[in-house]
């Protein structure tokens, strides 16, 4: 793939197309990839099938919002780093604006006893349970990976500190490095217009922030640093997209007193109803905590790892995925992430929402809707709001 001269017209075209997708792409990361394929590969032919499949494989391989990273990668291919930034802005801005406005609207209301809010909390239980089960079936297929997941689950539940998640991720990488030697690795190759030197610098920044931010948080009692650390870590450690970032963010923010459980889950329900990446849920959370500046800070923090990883990994992708030891380490990391998410799902998501048989049956019904009837998340939001309101009136 050759590097091309980037013009203002090219960037404007990227912005127009990505914004249109940001306004119309409902359905979560898998649906987004389908929209991208139709628009960028079939209609506009900005990439061929092989290059697109290669890019999707890389973004599934990395933590963070996969569909957003694919969009950034397509922008890079089309218009260099500026093209990647432009593509991200276009795809992400509509949902960021919608969720910041929702947060500002909600801030003036007392919703602590609202039936619709109870319904949204139960919706979150069903959606996150479904997402974690889907991840577990793919990322913990055997005894070794399930064992790694269990020890990560036990570790983060029994030893809840700022550093525990990062520590168990690193231990899982070491276990994967020692235990797994994949035999069948993708033999396809491609090239992207980013130098290896720049890639190495960006990957170093990604790793340094993951280690330094928790240290700064413990050293200085500063809300801005604490929020940036929480959102950055969530964006850096989540595999599988926006649904599974919920328990990590809830564990980071609600027990620390940044916002209430009710306000947290109200925003998550709203995030199901807007197009674009679900990671923009962070925009809502930041706004509730510290107004519009907080919303912008949270948005930057949660998406920054995605930028650093996709830009940093592109020039090394072929070497990484063809190295059995690196691939083995990532198998261990993926398994640990499943365990961490199950732990966070148990407490506080499940324990704070499902308190009796009615709650459990309601959650089970919503789970059937998404898992077996294959209904979209927005349908669950409607059912949750209506069901929660009716139950609250009984």
Automatic annotation (TrEMBL):
UniProt name for this protein: Chromate efflux transporter
Keyword check for Transmembrane helix: yes
Assigned keywords, A-Z: Cell membrane, Membrane, Transmembrane, Transmembrane helix
Record's bilayer topology term: Multi-pass membrane protein
Family membership: Belongs to the chromate ion transporter (CHR) (TC 2.A.51) family.
Protein location: Cell membrane
Transmembrane residue ranges: 88-109, 115-136, 148-180, 200-219, 231-249, 295-317, 329-349, 361-391
Alphabetical list of Pfam families matching this protein: Chromate_transp
């Amino acid at each position: 793939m050759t590097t091309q001269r980037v013009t203002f017209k090219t960037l404007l075209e990227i912005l127009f197309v990505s914004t249109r997708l940001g306004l119309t792409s409902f359905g979560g990361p898998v649906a987004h990839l389908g929209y991208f394929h139709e628009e960028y590969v079939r209609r506009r032919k900005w990439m061929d099938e092989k290059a697109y499949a290669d890019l999707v494989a890389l973004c599934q391989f990395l933590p963070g919002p996969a569909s957003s990273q694919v969009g950034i990668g397509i922008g890079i291919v089309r218009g260099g780093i500026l093209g990647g930034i432009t593509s991200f802005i276009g795809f992400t801005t509509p949902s960021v604006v919608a969720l910041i406005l929702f947060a500002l609207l909600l801030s003036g209301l007392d919703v602590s006893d609202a039936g619709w809010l109870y319904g949204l909390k139960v919706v979150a239980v069903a959606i996150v349970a479904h997402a974690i089960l889907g991840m577990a079936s793919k990322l913990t297929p055997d005894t070794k990976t399930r064992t790694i997941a269990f020890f990560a689950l036990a570790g983060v539940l029994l030893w809840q500190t700022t550093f525990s998640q990062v520590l168990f991720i690193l231990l899982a990488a070491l276990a994967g490095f020692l235990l797994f030697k994949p035999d069948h690795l993708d033999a396809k190759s491609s090239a992207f217009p980013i130098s290896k030197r720049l890639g190495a610098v960006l990957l170093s920044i990604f790793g340094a922030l993951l280690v330094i931010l928790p240290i700064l948080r413990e050293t200085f009692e500063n809300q801005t640093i604490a929020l940036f650390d929480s959102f950055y870590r969530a964006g850096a450690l989540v595999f599988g997209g926006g649904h599974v970032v919920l328990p990590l963010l809830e564990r980071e923010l609600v027990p620390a007193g940044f916002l209430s459980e009710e306000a947290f889950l109200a925003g998550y329900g709203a995030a199901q109803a807007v197009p674009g990446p679900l990671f923009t849920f962070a925009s809502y959370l930041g706004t509730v905590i510290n107004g519009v500046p907080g919303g912008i800070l949270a948005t930057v923090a949660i998406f920054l790892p995605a930028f650093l990883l996709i830009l940093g990994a592109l020039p090394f992708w072929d070497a990484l995925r063809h190295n059995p030891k690196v691939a083995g380490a990532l198998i261990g990391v993926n398994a640990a992430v499943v365990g961490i998410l199950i732990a966070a799902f148990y407490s506080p998501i499940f324990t704070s929402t499902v308190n009796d048989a009615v709650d459990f049956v309601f959650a089970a019904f919503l789970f059937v809707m998404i898992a077996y009837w294959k209904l979209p998340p927005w349908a669950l939001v409607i059912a949750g709001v209506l069901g929660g309101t009716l139950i609250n009136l009984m």
